[in-house]
């Protein structure tokens, strides 16, 4: 008659999942680590955006490092997806230059290095725009306080216009 321990030993030898088999454990362990690394990089890619106050060079270096990490583990992504992520997640002061890039450069044919080189040329304009916005914007983050401090524009009445 068999005991429970005999059943467990018999079941463990033939029905063990292949990843737990001692001869295949190392290859499965590598696969699991690779899957974990891929999922981390996908998450980082999905959340990637330009940080407030970040200059384009810092943004590009962070993005390029992420793309290199993805390539190191043989993750592939279409060029258009990489380029779209690069230009669509820049801060708002870059919007007009991003629009020009999308219209003139095309996101399929170029790569993010070329997009960076083109956008880098306009960094002085963006810095000037940023300074102008900072001068205009009040120091408070309370938008209601800003609205209440602005004098309402009153349109002249029709009767005054024709007098």
UniProtKB/TrEMBL annotation:
<protein>
    <recommendedName>
        <fullName>Integrase, catalytic region, zinc finger, CCHC-type, peptidase aspartic, catalytic</fullName>
    </recommendedName>
</protein>
<dbReference type="Pfam" id="PF14223">
    <property type="entry name" value="Retrotran_gag_2"/>
</dbReference>
<feature type="region of interest" description="Disordered">
    <location>
        <begin position="1"/>
        <end position="22"/>
    </location>
</feature>
């Amino acid at each position: 008659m068999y005991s429970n321990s005999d059943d467990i030993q018999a079941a463990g030898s033939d029905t063990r999942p292949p990843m737990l088999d001692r001869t295949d454990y190392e290859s499965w362990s590598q696969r699991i680590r690779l899957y974990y690394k891929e999922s981390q990089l996908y998450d980082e890619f999905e959340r990637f955006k330009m940080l407030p106050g970040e200059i384009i060079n810092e943004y590009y270096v962070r993005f390029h490092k992420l793309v290199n990490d993805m390539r190191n583990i043989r993750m592939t992504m279409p060029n258009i997806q990489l380029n779209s992520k690069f230009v669509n997640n820049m801060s708002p002061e870059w919007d007009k230059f991003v629009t020009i890039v999308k219209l003139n450069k095309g996101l399929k044919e170029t790569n993010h290095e070329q997009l960076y080189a083109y956008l880098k040329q306009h960094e002085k304009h963006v810095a000037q725009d940023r300074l102008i916005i900072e001068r205009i914007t009040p120091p408070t983050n309370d938008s209601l306080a800003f609205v209440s401090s602005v004098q309402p524009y009153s349109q002249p009445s029709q009767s005054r216009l024709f007098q």
